Amino acid sequence: MSGADLRRYTLIGTVAALSATVAVAAARVDAPQVGGYLKAFTVVLDAPEAQSEGSSLLRARVRADWRASDSLSAQIAYELAPRIQTFRSSVDDSESAAGAYRIGDLSDAALSSTRQDASILDVVQNLDRAYLFAATPLADITVGRQPLAFGSARSVNPTDVLAPFAYEALDKEERIGVDAVRLQAPLGEMSELDAGVVLGEDLARDRSAAYVRAKGYLLSTDIATMAMEFRQHRMLGIDVARAIGGASAWFEGAYTSVEAGDTRDGFARASVGADYHLSFGAYTFAELHWNGAGSTNRDDYAEIAETSPYREGIVRFLGKGYAACGVSYAITMLFGANAQALLNLADGSVLISSGVEYGFGQDAFIRAGTFYGVGSRGSSGGTEFAAYPNVCYASVSLYF
User: Fold this and answer.
1) Which of 32, 145, 255, 369 has its CA at a distance of 20 to 30 angstroms from the CA of residue 63?
2) Is the pTM of this model over 0.90?
3) Which CATH class is domain 3-399?
4) In a 3-state reduction of DSSP, which class is residue 304?
């Protein structure tokens, strides 16, 4: 059996198993709760030493939830995203879906895809959720395509390596679903053992992952430790969060060993920071991040970008040290604004973002914002964020 056939039959089997489970319990199941959204994005990108480009994307997502009882439920979510663009924008996570931990996936080959002049017109589909949840006396078990996220840091999460968002992603509402079997067992009133197997393409071990995470509460502090093997890498991580005065503080760190033939045997990453709600209602945070896979010399950036941590998407930033800060404020109940900056401490470049949001009740929102890279360019290699394109975007979201 070919790899394509295995992926196809596995996907069909997953959907069929979920459908059969729901059908068996149909006599006791209420009508499914159906919801979703429509989002329209317009993005303009101004890259250094290149002409401006544009992208338009419509994303339609439909979600169905079935509940047979308090201990048995299922969810399926499907997205369809027509797009017209001259570049692959950060709002379009179809590239992330293609590289996600999935045994197999729906193909876009049957959908329209044409290239005219410099523009691309095509339609991307994504079966993003298809899982069964069962609560047993010993543990909660989730089987199928589901979201998995770890870590408490705000800007960069060192322990979140399975399906992380890009820092500059415009739409972070739904994390890409991965194919996994997850078990969450309570160990006490505020402690838990979380373990899972995350399955990659063709069930290959070097494209899959497995993890064990233990979480507890000690001295008014949430403490979680993690061990993970993923795509020829091994990681040990820790996540600590607690209140200090009126602020919430966190430390998240991980050491990753590389087994993909790179000259770098391993690297550490860590984020430490705090957030605080000011008296007039604004929310602000500050965070420091250390990236052991990066360099303090801008001339090394091109070479570093070809190493395994970057090829695999584990690490995105090229420098060693970063400082981030941000503030958001609800001007009215329906109107809010935010701003954030990320500074490369070695080369001095800054990535600045800002945005506003206006809500029409609970079901409709308008958003707009920018990303702007500040730094110097040189013949021997420029600063990191000087190479980032300037981005302006606007979106309309309708929920149902």
Assistant:
1) 369
2) no
3) mainly beta
4) helix
